[in-house]
Amino acid sequence: MRRLLxxxxxxxxxxxxxxxxxxTAPEAPDEVQDLMPAQTETFGEGLWKVICAAVDKLxxxxxxxxxxxxxxVAIALLVSILQQIPTEKNNIVEFAGCTAVGVxxxxxxxxxxxTAVDTINSLSEYGKLFFPVMAGAQAAQGxxxxxxxxxxxxxxxxxxxxxxxxxxxxxxxxxxxxxxVAGCALGEDLLKRLRDLIKWFVTWCLKNGLYIFTxxxxxxxxxxGATDAAKLKAxxxxxxSAVPVVGGILSDASEAVLVGAGMVxxxxxxxxxxxxxxxxxxxxxxxxxxxxxxxxxxxxCAMLDxxxxxxxxxxxxxxxxxxxxxxxxxxxxxxxxxxxxxxxxG
Length: 346
Hints:
Elements: H1 2-15, H2 43-56, H3 59-83, H4 90-140, H5 144-186, H6 189-242, H7 247-303, H8 307-343
């Protein structure tokens, strides 16, 4: 009788959570539905379709970035020509050139910053819906400890990173651009040093934030995974010995249930990975095009001997690099967490 009671207690652990409805990944946001594959694909095929769909939508951004690049080179060419005229007002020419570049690029930079913030918020909101599904699926496989540790860490880092970016890094990016425009227009070294200090701080935060998160996953993954594997082995042995004659059959059946839960979890995980990539890829490419065009414009302007204008354009390209880093770190955080969930126990 005691063995039968133990069996009745343990069986729901394996049977109740393993339902496909509970392990279905949440739908991707409406704004990226056109990027998602129409049918369930392997991850590689699905990712390729997401990338191709995102690239097809980039033509307006490429055209706009190209026009901006041409206008920047024209301003640098005009500054370079005016500087060749013998006069004591060369500083005024450079000031005017930097001001014109700043006015032209600040509005576009503000648009890209808002795009990055919206992308980070969308990734965060999708993660809040998606990771409970993956945590429940991993728990159904017996990964009670590892799923709890991974879910807690991911949600915590997601919340902290989102708050740091919105409340600290975005204002710092605006401050970086303001110091860049003022420093290049006025030629003040102090302003340029403050700008470089902000650059170092933002870069340091992004790099070390990701290092800390991956370190947390490494530590909790090893400890919690080993604990869960030991618990599963003990549970199967208990089932095998608790019921005479059919205990071994029930133990094998429980393993089959766990495999089924893993397959459902993998399907949900693949869809979630594709949804995360769909949310992230278009804004990342848009910002990346701006970054690339500004790099090209900066290099061309440097050849025209418009040093301050070239330096200012490089600063704006660096700001686009910050945005790429912010969105990239958030995306990588979600992708790594999803893969860790999909690995299962042990």
